[in-house]
From TrEMBL:
This is EF-hand domain-containing protein. One of its GO terms (biological process) is protein transport. Belongs to the calcineurin regulatory subunit family. CHP subfamily. InterPro entries: Calcineurin_B_homologous, EF-hand-dom_pair, EF_hand_dom. One of its GO terms (cellular component) is cytoplasm. It is found in: Cell membrane; Cytoplasm; Nucleus. It comes from Oikopleura dioica (Tunicate). Keywords: Calcium, Cell membrane, Cytoplasm, Lipoprotein, Membrane, Metal-binding, Myristate, Nucleus, Phosphoprotein, Protein transport, Repeat, Transport.
Length: 184
């Protein structure tokens, strides 16, 4: 890799501030971004993500990739950092509006499930997620029952759809904070 390719983008400090990341972390993410961008396009597309070893084994891989993509089907470095920043470790002192707060992590999880970006999940969408995750190992009728139960328990039985804040309230934020954290 030439010196020009490894140089941080001019807006690296702005990205660090927006994403609440140390500049050293932005530098590491830049190197990872460049590794994924094998064709040196300056953006990533779905094919670049499919090159990640064993990523294709994740049944939610297509939806995870979609989280990274903008309207043009690409992910620039800033967008890459914004999404990855959510996975920074957090602790009890992390503000609820921080990029890496358990609440932000839960909202990202909701976006993963909300494939149509309607800010609501209905029973059929919960069923589809469950089907992706367990495949044919559980009978369809049982999955439909589980999906219905998820809606009822998440909303307290008050609605037939889950909204982002329902998921935030329903999940144990300590567990979300730990399980959705990664070092990079």
């Amino acid at each position: 890799m030439g010196a020009g390719e490894s140089k941080l983008p001019d807006n690296a400090e702005d990205i660090a501030a927006t994403c609440e990341l140390p500049i050293k972390t932005v530098n590491r993410l830049w190197k990872r971004f460049q590794e994924l961008d094998k064709e040196k396009k300056g953006v990533l597309d779905a094919d670049d993500f499919h090159e990640i070893h064993s990523f294709h084994l994740n049944p939610l891989a297509p939806r995870i990739i979609d989280l990274f993509m903008d309207a043009t089907g690409h992910c620039d470095f800033e967008g890459f950092c914004k999404l990855v920043a959510v996975f920074q470790p957090c602790d009890k002192k992390t503000a609820s509006d921080a990029v890496n707060s358990p609440q932000s992590k839960a909202r990202l999880l909701f976006r993963l499930f909300d494939y149509e970006a309607k800010c609501e999940l209905h029973q059929n969408e919960v069923f589809e997620i469950l089907l992706l995750m367990v495949g044919s190992s559980v009978e369809e009728t049982q999955l439909k029952h589980i999906a219905k139960r998820v809606i009822l328990e998440t909303t307290g039985g008050t609605r037939h759809k889950i909204e982002p804040e329902d998921l935030v309230r329903a999940l144990d934020m300590d567990t979300v904070g730990v399980k959705m954290s990664a070092g990079y």
